[in-house]
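Appendix C reproduces, verbatim, an entry submitted by the partner laboratory led by Prof. M.T., so that reviewers can inspect both the input and the predicted structure.
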Amino acid sequence: MYKTQATTTGTALFDKEVNLNALLLVAGSDAATAKLYEGTSASDPLICQINAAIGTSESFYFKDPGEIVSKVFVVITGTNANLSVIYS
């Protein structure tokens, strides 16, 4: 398994086929939301959305064996939010 992170909105995470396993969103000084889209923009199909309250973290686990995607685009809201993506 591998891990990558996104801290800014509009981040393209992958340009190859990967198997998404889990997400961890850490909110900063305000609530945070991360939306993952399968493609290269926010107009592509939504894979999932995860929310975290101020100063907390939330995790999301994809149903085994995970979500196989070829490209992932992330939109993150919230000050100092950090999204970790675990994949294989």
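The beta strands are 2-6, 11-14, 18-26, 32-38, 46-52, 57-61, 67-69, 72-77, 82-87. Additional entries are available on request from the coordinating office.
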